Amino acid sequence: MRILLAEDDHLLGDGLRAGLLQLGFQVDWVRDGPAAERELRANPYAAAVLDLTLPGKDGLHVLAAVRQARVDLPVLVLTARDAVTDRIRGLDVGADDYVVKPVDLQELAARLRALVRRSHGQPQGCLSAHDVVLDPAARAVRKGGEAVTLATREFDLLYTLMLNAGRVLSREQLERQLYSWGREVESNTIEVHVHRLRRKLGNALIQTVRGVGYMLMRSSDPS
Questions:
Q1: In whole angstroms, what is the distance from residue 219 CA to residue 101 CA?
Q2: What pLDDT is recorded for position 223?
Q3: Which one, of 51, 25, 18, lies nearest residue 180 by Cα?
Q4: Do 175 and 190 meet the contact criterion of CB atoms below 8 Å apart?
Q5: Most buried in the list 42, 65, 129, 198, measured by CB within 10 Å?
Q6: Concatenated DSSP letters for 12-68?
Q7: Cis peptide before 102 (omega within 30 of 0)
Q8: Which three-class secondary structure state does DSSP give residue 148?
Q9: SMART domains in the record, alphabetically (predicted)?
């Protein structure tokens, strides 16, 4: 799950980025408002963590601008401003959640997972398709009740496909969700991961749409 972190405090930003990486997120980190707005307009992030006191352009103005541009992604506001009026203003401008510093890393991760699930119409904690169940918090997968061991990128790919069940995703879309800045991606990387997932979970789960991309079949979809 690729997210944008907009935080100008170097110590806090570095800690949040490192911690979220350990919890399975791919994190692009920017340190000012104009950079945050530019990235949010240009890239299909799963979610954003947005500080309000950014240099160059206040976080609320960044949020208002991207919402006016119809950028539709969950935004969690992270700020030291704890007045009720500040929280109300942030939510009214377009924030989906609001966390006051200092923040617990596990809580932040849980809130991000919940926001992403809901944005994809998936309110439940675990995702399922056919006999495969994925637990995002535990980063665990079971098939027919039996645990299945997946590599990090295999899990991330399955998670992305399950969030978008029934929707065809191109290789480029999948790469942009799975890899953050500066990561070299081989041309057949997604194909390799799909092959390994099929070997572990069965061929019927992920459908290839020739010339377009891949789709995870919903449980009710015909095979």
A1: 41
A2: 40
A3: 25
A4: yes
A5: 129
A6: HHHHHHHHHHHTT-EEEEE-SHHHHHHHHHHS--SEEEEESS-SSS-HHHHHHHHHH
A7: yes
A8: strand
A9: REC, Trans_reg_C
Dist. CA 186–CA 88, nearest whole Å: 45
Q: Can you name the residues that pair with 75 across neighbouring β-strands?
A: 48
What is the average per-residue pLDDT within 49-70?
93
Domains of the chain as residue ranges with CATH: 2-119 (3.40.50.2300), 127-216 (1.10.10.10)
Task: State the first-to-last Cα distance of the chain, in angstroms, to the nearest integer.
Answer: 27
Q: Enter the tokens of residue 168.
A: 């065809």
Q: At what angle do helices 33-42 and 59-68 cross, to 10 degrees?
A: 20
In the predicted model, what is the mean pLDDT of the chain? 88
| pLDDT at residue 13 in the model | 94
pLDDT above 60: residue 220? no
Q: How far is CA 83 from the centre of its chain?
A: 28
Residue 94 structure tokens: 């377009």
Answer whether 0.85 is exceeded by the pTM.
no
Beta strand pairing call for 140-143 and 132-135:
antiparallel
**pLDDT for residue 149:** 95
